[in-house]
Amino acid sequence: MSNSTIIKRIESANFKLLAIICTGILVVVITLLVSLQFHPDTEMMFPPVETVPSQPGMAVSSLTTTVTISGRQILVNGDPFTVKGVGYAPTPIGGDPETTTPHGDYFTPDYSAIYNRDLPLLRQMGANTIRIWGWKYNGNHSDFLDAAHNNGTRTIYVIVSYWLDASRDISDPTVRQAIVAEFTQMVAIHKNHPAVLMWAIGNELNAPWMFGDSDDLFSLIDEMAQAAHMEEGDEYHPVTTPLADTDLINTIANRDLEVPNLDMWSVQVYRGSSFGSLFSDYTAVSYKPLVITEYGIDAYDDENVDEYENLGMSHQATYAESLWNEIVANSEVCSGGSIMTYSDEWWKGKHGQTDSNHPSCPEADPSFHGACGYANSAHPDGYANEEWWGIMRTTNNGTDLDIMQPRSIYYVLQSSWINKIYLPIVSNNSR
């Protein structure tokens, strides 16, 4: 055998060995990403996050953020801004925002352990925005906003929402006046905070179970937006209202000119792995900016009674990736979106519907992670499981803070938003 033949065989063997090693590393990486368990005892769940604590004596409110609208674009401090957002409602296991204190307002110092747990994880994910559904309109949430702003380092901006309940009679002038006053007070308290991105009025107020497509509703929305502008002056934050996907395009077409003070539209769209004709349809009826304030699917396979990931499927992640790619491809129309949602919400089973496959629904125990929901043909299993929408799997930790365990959707969006995936560094005492 010649020397050249020997050398070629050695090179071939080395190449095969290298390929085997690389394949093994890839398998380990994927396994870690999908099966990683997080625990509060873990010393470091990710490579160090650039979290900058507030400096003693430093007033965060002395910093400024200017948010403006230019055509269909949102500008933050003069630069085009794309919302890489996550819906954030961190109700702990056992809590119910509709019936128990603090009624969903986990944004005050009493609950700082919750948002100080979550904001670094969102920041590491690449999120630059969180959308909340509401908080106490006259509360002081400066500590939460300070933590989100992070002294300007990898700031997570906040879409601050005023919750408007369907029980209020918006045809009554006295009630309308009170609603406008409450919203204006909320704006006045936080208008100078640099973490505020925009104000949102209500949630799916045009839906049949709310106020529908009513004149009273849209005139009230315009009054509220105008009041916010007057409260803030020339450099006001944009005002929006998140609409349900109920006769959506016709609603916007018919109401667009009736709400001149509404700076932009936001929509909540659940049509499966694609938004369909949403962007072209919207372009034809409004010149205002557009943000998608809810999209995605849940993480649970109702047919096989387990999470997709546990069954070797990644539907939640692949749907999110497909939808985000459409948002990016239509950036001339859409200024980003906020995925539904940060963490599993164990209290939502009470809103599930009874059917032959779910005879025990609705189920009202917020300490039980149930499968109640409703039929939805846009989901791969034909069903939306209300308690399983989390990017984070919420795990019970007794009397300590719930454990946040990222699903694969976390890493898919991280890769899309910051073009890299951070592998966790797990300490020996994690479990």
Q: Helicity level, as a percent range?
A: 25-40%
Total E-strand runs? 18
Sequence stretches where pLDDT stays below 50 over 5 or more residues: 19-59, 424-431
Per CATH, what is the topology? TIM Barrel
Give an overview of the whole structure:
It is a single chain. This protein is of the alpha/beta class. The chain has a single domain (65-418), classed as TIM Barrel, CATH 3.20.20. The protein has 9 helices and 18 strands. The protein has helices at residues 3-35, 112-125, 142-149, 173-190, 215-232, 248-255, 278-283, 315-329, 408-418, and strands at 67-70, 73-76, 79-81, 83-87, 129-131, 157-162, 196-201, 239-240, 242-244, 265-268, 290-294, 300-301, 306-307, 334-339, 373-375, 383-385, 392-395, 403-406. The strands form 5 sheets. Strands 8-7-6-5-4-14-11-10-9 form a 9-stranded parallel sheet, covered by helices on one side. Strands 1-2-3 form a 3-stranded antiparallel sheet, with no helix packed on it. Helix 2 links the parallel strand 4 and strand 5 (129-131).
Quick rundown:
With 431 residues, the chain is of the alpha/beta class. The protein is 30% helix and 16% strand. It has a single domain, classed as TIM Barrel (Alpha-Beta Barrel).
Question: Could you name the key traits of this structure?
Answer:
single chain; 431 residues; alpha/beta; TIM Barrel; 18 strands; disordered C terminus
Compile the SSE list and pairings:
Blueprint: H1 3-35, E1 67-70, E2 73-76, E3 79-81, E4 83-87, H2 112-125, E5 129-131, H3 142-149, E6 157-162, H4 173-190, E7 196-201, H5 215-232, E8 239-240, E9 242-244, H6 248-255, E10 265-268, H7 278-283, E11 290-294, E12 300-301, E13 306-307, H8 315-329, E14 334-339, E15 373-375, E16 383-385, E17 392-395, E18 403-406, H9 408-418
Parallel strand pairs: 4-5, 4-14, 5-6, 6-7, 7-8, 9-10, 10-11, 11-14
Antiparallel strand pairs: 1-2, 2-3, 12-13, 15-16, 17-18
Helix pairs in contact: 2-3, 4-5, 8-9
